[in-house]
Amino acid sequence: MSWATILAVTDGGTGSEAAMKTAIELGQRFGARVDFLHVENDARDLVPYVGEGMSATAMEQIMASVDSRNAARREVVDKTYKRHCSGAGLPEVDPGLPPKQGEFRVCMNRLTGREAEQVERFGRLSDVIVLPYPGAADGDGEATLDAALFGSGRPVLLAPADAGPGLGKTIAVAWDGSKEGACAVTAALPLLAKAEKVVAITAREGDEADPSALARYLAGHGIEAKTWAYTPGSESIADGLLEQADHANADMLVMGAYGHSRLRERILGGATQGVLERSKIPVLMMH
């Protein structure tokens, strides 16, 4: 099992470069094609929200502001792409050509519209989607993440702004026995198979999660996993998972996303939301 196509969103925000570097590293590791996606805002999308009762002069000012913002983001993405891809001698391919099995290539897809919608569309025919963390995105990072997690049916790998090379040598799996957790583990099998060390981390909260059962499943795929159960204290589940992953020297975390309602998690807090806000290592999630 491997990955053949990787979609990486490059929006010109502070996390855009990290997403690009992470996607390139994964593409080289798996001999996969990396499709970078840059979506510019269409000022006409704003008309239904602000158009009624607005003067022509005000509308022109809004259009000009959107165009200026697009140009600034485009410049950042172009410089980053040149630094890491075209100017670095990486093999490039036209976006319209199909990928070739086992062949690492990069390409840039430039579109105008709503980023979340394009991520859904492109993501459904990609093996993994690489995104910057929502807080490091230029635009509505949460909407893009939601589209990737809930609309694409694909795993999402979130790259922190200071992500370094060599990710995935030691991978921690947050195992709670849930459907979302099982989906994330299955989606991460290509990464787990290449890891030097895999640790299944489970919080002792009930009888549903059995880390040894996960270890047996992974053994069937030729993956040796150590089990790591801990008793939560007063800290949140997210903080506990991140602390245990740090103790295991993990440089990546695999977990299910939004086992509870995302609205509930964003209002009341939850494991997914807490990890999104505080993780300093790449996290592969799937809903």
From TrEMBL:
<protein>
    <submittedName>
        <fullName>Universal stress protein</fullName>
    </submittedName>
</protein>
<comment type="similarity">
    <text>Belongs to the universal stress protein A family.</text>
</comment>
<feature type="domain" description="UspA">
    <location>
        <begin position="224"/>
        <end position="286"/>
    </location>
</feature>
<dbReference type="InterPro" id="IPR006015">
    <property type="entry name" value="Universal_stress_UspA"/>
</dbReference>
<dbReference type="InterPro" id="IPR006016">
    <property type="entry name" value="UspA"/>
</dbReference>
<dbReference type="Pfam" id="PF00582">
    <property type="entry name" value="Usp"/>
</dbReference>
